Amino acid sequence: MKRAVFFCSASYTIDPKFNDIAREFVAATCREGYDIVSGGAIKGTMNAVADEASKFPGENIGCIPRFMKELVHPALTKVVWTDTMSERKEAMRVGVSLAVALPGGIGTLDELAETYTLMKLGILNAKLVVVNIDGVYDPLRDLLDKFVEMNTLDSATRSMINFVSSIEEYKELIRG
Fold first, then answer.
1. Which pTM value belongs to this model?
2. 58-80 confidence digits (pLDDT tens)
3. Sheet strand arrangement including 127-131
């Protein structure tokens, strides 16, 4: 099986449409034969990701710091325990060939930035997808383009990150 990691929000107050979008993207990923890795918590979009992944064959893996043990999603097929948030991010990326950033907050941005950096350094070989629904990630896309313009980011590295604004674009990208 292939393995995909989803970075997403743990907010209970995120607009519910983003949880619906998460379910749609997770389902499409599972249908392509991927196991799913997430933060594994019962909070926010992480809950939607683990719920949706549980509807499909394959592993539903959650990586959780021990200090968050009361938040473990009950449908996970495997829990990877860590001591810190940094260890959690590292555990989430183990064996992945696809990393997906859903709309989220500062934690999602942290996971995305570190994953992108590891890809640039050649430490991680994965496809990186940013789900840019409603223009959530337009400022990030524009910033990366500005970095290219300033010659602080090369075009090859810029092309490692794929922004999609629809499920159709996503399906085409992960099949290719």
1. 0.96
2. 999 999 999 999 999 999 999 99
3. 78-82, 60-65, 34-38, 2-7, 98-101, 127-131, 161-164
